[in-house]
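Form P-L/3: holo structure prediction, ligand magnesium ion.
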Amino acid sequence: MILIKSSSQIDEMRKANIIVRDTLNLLRDNTKPGVSTYDLNKLAHDYIVSQNAVPSFLNYNGFPASICVSVDCEVVHGIPSKKKILQEGQIVSYDCGAILNGWHGDAARTVAVGIISPECQQLIDVTEQSFFVGINSIVSGVTRLGDIGYAIQSYAESFGYGVVRELVGHGIGREMHEDPEVPNFGRAGHGMRLSHGMTIAVEPMITMGTERVDWCADGWTVKTRDRKPSAHYENTIAILDDGIEILSL
Ligand code: MG
Ligand code: MG
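OUTPUT (holo model):
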């Protein structure tokens, strides 16, 4: 069931998403070689709590941390650890969620650790751009879910990249994961029409090689099957009568 939000409810979601945005900016600014992903998780956790919000990932289906930190071939759901120390040349994806006054925010960014290869920088840039290619043409009452997926997929694949199929975006509101599913692939003109008051998280997961993934033995971490790098970019958006608003930018 799709839950339509009023403008005052979207106002509440904006506040939660601004906390998420600011947490991700804090993580970006503290990304450097030698930092442990455990310390980055603590930084994020403490900031979210200082804003009177709740880190929504912590204990979500048993997830043991407040953010997901996924390095290089890890696509999503990497678990922060004292043993995982960032190294020059890696790329790291941060996925963060917060609840404020019962409303959820959810966003993700991929950033460079020190100096990275041009190939990795292009992967980060194309992943981010694919999000905007996917959402920029949304027209309330006209655009369908398949149009978003088609736009993201066509753009990413034009660079020879893979689009992960097994994980998708989602509706968001009083729950982190609501209907509908929002795939990053699809056929133009297919799927549900988007309309005013829908709030969704659009989150392309783009790989340098195969789009196939492995689910690791820790029960969480998802890696590319060929162990090539992967990037993730996500924002929560609201569909409005006159376009869209990106709530987490
Ligand atoms: Mg997320
Ligand atoms: Mg999400």
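COMMENT: The pocket of magnesium ion (ligand 2) is lined by residues 106, 170, 201, 203, 234 (CB under 6 Å).
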